[in-house]
Task: inverse folding
């Protein structure tokens, strides 16, 4: 068997629509919209429905490695190109909480100058590919029907921020403790057991699958240079400030740059590596994450007021902002089409900000 024959070949039939999927998606998104209106009334500012709090906005560059093996030499990684990128570091809750509460971390990445047919209508002229990885390999509620069981709890507890944060953590992480959220009236979920670690030392995962042109993959972004590798597992100090993560990111990039590695994990078996259930970890012993590109971030001012406003209020990161060659796969990705559109449209409307897509890194303020 040749190397390429081991990998599952992409075809449209790999995705299987769930029973009642369209109605479930409508219910989830309608509930999220109600939550969003309540959050707006509390803050009198529209924030993201998830990952509302940013901790750093960074300009960097993704450089594809030379001589990748054929199955990984695909799509945006098909040649040793170098793409400018803007990154937004965040935590998962839909409100602006204290960093003393341990929350899953996100690293949204927008690659610029990408060729290929864009997925969403109206984006024919866009040249971006977004990646939205989180620091956990799976999402506990990994398909639409499972997600639909948790969303009512999110809505019910919108006025109880502590409970909502626990649910947000459960949503973004895996494990049995997360499932404990369902049916527990006060949602005393203890996913906060996740270590409250330095955001720059984390490895971030797509959690769900994407098309990798002829194949199917999950993607991760892992610390590569010594400066960020030594932060892996480093806990926030006792009595950390409410905005400790921002302060750590700003202090780090004031003095030095960082390198991360983008890696792809190809699907070798849709039974053990399901596409339609993103709560199942894909075994790395069967298909390891293979390095495909380097993300280089020079020293810079990571959180100027102009940058924060631009990234929080003007930019939108969205897994469907990208090319057909990297189409998001599975029902948990399909629900994200309407969820991100609703959240971003409302945010921009209420904050009276233009909805735009950038094409040049210079558009991101310093
Ligand atoms: C598959 C796993 C998922 C991952 C890895 C993920 C990751 C992320 C990340 C990193 C962000 C922050 C983006 C930014 O900085 O702008 C984000 C935002 C968001 N996520 Fe997810 N997410 C996932 C699933 C979902 C699902 C299932 C939903 C809803 C049903 C959802 C709804 C949202 C919304 C509404 C936003 C804010 C969008 C905006 O206002 O621009 N996510 N997500």
Result:
């Amino acid at each position: 068997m040749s190397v390429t024959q081991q990998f599952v070949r992409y075809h449209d039939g790999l995705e299987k629509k769930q029973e009642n999927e369209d109605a479930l998606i409508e219910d989830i998104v309608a509930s999220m919209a109600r939550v969003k209106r309540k959050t707006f009334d509390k803050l009198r500012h529209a924030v993201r429905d998830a990952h509302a709090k940013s901790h750093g906005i960074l300009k960097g560059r993704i450089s594809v490695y030379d001589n990748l093996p054929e199955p990984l030499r695909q799509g945006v990684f098909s040649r040793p190109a170098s793409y400018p990128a803007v990154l937004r570091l965040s935590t998962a809750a839909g409100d602006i909480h204290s960093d003393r509460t341990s929350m899953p971390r996100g690293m949204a990445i927008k690659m610029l100058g990408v060729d290929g047919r864009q997925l969403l209508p109206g984006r024919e002229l866009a040249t971006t590919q977004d990646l939205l990885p989180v620091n956990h390999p799976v999402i506990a509620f990994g398909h639409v029907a499972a997600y639909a069981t948790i969303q009512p709890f999110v809505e019910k507890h919108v006025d109880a921020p502590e409970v909502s944060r626990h649910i947000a953590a459960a949503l973004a992480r895996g494990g049995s403790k997360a499932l404990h959220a369902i049916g527990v009236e006060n949602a005393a979920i203890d996913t906060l057991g996740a270590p409250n670690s330095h955001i720059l030392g984390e490895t971030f995962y797509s959690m769900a699958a994407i098309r990798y042109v002829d194949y199917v993959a999950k993607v991760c972004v892992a610390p590569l240079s010594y400066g960020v590798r030594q932060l892996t597992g480093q806990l926030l100090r006792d009595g950390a400030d409410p905005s400790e993560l921002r302060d750590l990111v700003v202090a780090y990039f004031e003095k030095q740059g960082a390198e991360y590695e983008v890696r792809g994990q190809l699907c070798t078996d849709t039974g053990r590596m399901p596409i339609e259930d993103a709560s199942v970890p894909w075994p790395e012993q069967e298909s390891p994450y293979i390095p495909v590109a380097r993300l280089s971030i020079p020293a810079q001012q990571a959180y100027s007021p102009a940058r924060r406003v631009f990234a929080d209020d003007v930019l939108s990161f969205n897994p469907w902002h990208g090319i057909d060659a990297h189409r998001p796969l599975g029902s948990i990705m399909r629900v994200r089409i309407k969820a991100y559109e609703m959240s971003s449209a409302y945010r921009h409307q209420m904050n009276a900000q233009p909805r735009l897509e950038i094409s040049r890194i210079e558009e991101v303020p310093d």
Summary: The chain has one domain: 4-354. The domain at 4-354 is CATH 2.40.180.10 (Catalase HpII,  Chain A, domain 1).
